[in-house]
Amino acid sequence: MKVSLLYGKRTIDVAFSAHAQVSIIRKPQMPLLQDSQAAVDQAVASASMFAHGCKSACILVCDVTRPVPNGLFLRSLIKQLIDGGIDRRSITCLIATGLHRPNEAAELTSVINDDWVLEHIRIENHHARVDAEHAELGTTQSGTVVKLDRRFMDADLKIVTGLVEPHFMAGWSGGRKVVAPGVAHADTIRVLHSARFIEHPLTRECVLAGNPLHEELLEIVEMLRTRSRRDIYALNTVIDEHRRLGFVNFGEIVASHNEAVAFAERFCVVPIREKFDVVLTSAAGYPLDLTYYQAVKGMVTPLDILADEGTLIVASECAEGLGSDNFRASQAKLLAEGPDGFIRRIEQKRFADIDEWETEMQLRATRQTRVQMYSEGLQGEDRRLTGIEMIDSIQAQIDASAPERRIAVIPEGPYVVPRFATS
Asked: Which one, of 68, 86, 67, 75, lies nearest residue 41 by Cα?
């Protein structure tokens, strides 16, 4: 038997002997929209009505780390806003980078994926560290000072777009998460990613009820709605493992996101009735596995089905290496302090150091299980700074596994969430 794992812009094939105890974990087959463009056009038809009386609009667009099908819907959505009376020169597409790098040149072209939008609409990047580009919204009940990008706050019509998929902290991506951390100031992002939120047991993938990070983001959206005296809207998409459209909707940000989550959950969360000695997974391929920073998501998602003293093997190309200089510094601190020392230190801080939250999430995996990774993009010092065991061949590791060991394979990586279920 041969299984193909998503890896960069290609796949890696792994062969298993006839005697191996292998379980392939995939999503149930998602029903696809037969005419994606027609479905998008129908979904956004109401946008022109919401545009009436508005002089400006700001559309948040996810950055390169998300495979959002922007080329399918941005033009249709924008034309509805123009039909509703907004001058196209008063429409801005704002790339919700959070604390990631700006998307520019060919990368920006690939994100937007529509020449008409690139030619006719102003497209700008969010810069979380530029104070002047943000305005203070207020303070949440838990004490988070909220500062958001002025371009979004000041627009009459506010729309977020994105992909609804499992997220290892916020439960699900999309919706409120595109607002914060998407276009939040660095200080706000550093609080939202502090140990106060991240160490909570319900701050995890596919969990919304009781998830303190999700609840904080909802409060931020409500603060913004109250200030604007207008609803905020969202265009949500769900795609299958081949990145084909299975769901699209448009509406008030919270209700429409909940509807998209309900659809996605039917396919992304897979109940599994056993635990495994070895779990082989991916970091979901391009663009999610561009860096080791993003590949951490592939380590965390399958933990629920790993047996005690099990081994997790992750395939992640990491074509751009480890990640940011901030993440590199965080990984170095982990190696110097050890897991317990690292956690003790960050638990005392109100503001997380930038990108240290990914190191914190990596510890969820490495404190529970043995983690190995195959990556052609990580070289030299980058390999050491991962703090995990780097391997030179997935096939060799699988061949070395005793035939009696139970092996689970998750080709799509963190887009599939296996949940251990006894019944």
From this structure: 75
- The residue count of the chain comes to 423
DSSP states along 31-76: PPPSSHHHHHHHHGGGHHHHHTT-S-EEEEEE-TTS---HHHHHHH
Please tell me the distance from the alpha carbon of residue 232 to that of residue 221, in angstroms, as a whole number: 8
CA–CA distance from 373 to each of 35, 170, 409 (Å)? 39, 25, 14
> For residues 275 and 279, what is the distance between their CA atoms, to the nearest angstrom?
9
Tens-place pLDDT, residues 374-403: 999 999 999 999 999 999 999 999 998 877
Give dist(CA 280, CA 296) in Å, integer.
14
In order of 88, 189, 371, the CA distances from 309 in angstroms are 58, 35, 11
CA distance 333 to 313: 24
Continuous H helices in 44-149 = 47-51, 70-83, 105-112, 115-120
Token match 């990613």: residue? 193
Kindly report the number of other CB atoms within 10 A of residue 105's CB atom: 8
- Give residue 403's pLDDT: 73
Nearest to 100 by CA among 181, 203, 213: 181
Q: Give the H/E segment covering residue 329.
A: helix 325-346
CA angle 38, 40, 41 (to 5 degrees): 65
Residue 139: count other Cβ atoms within 10 Å of its Cβ.
11
pTM of the model: 0.92
Instruction: Work out the pLDDT band at 292, boundaries 50, 70, 90.
Output: very high
Two tokens, residue 337:
């302090």
The 10s digit of each residue's pLDDT in 96-128 is 999 999 999 999 999 999 999 999 999 999 999
Which of 125, 285, 301 is CA-nearest to residue 207? Answer: 301
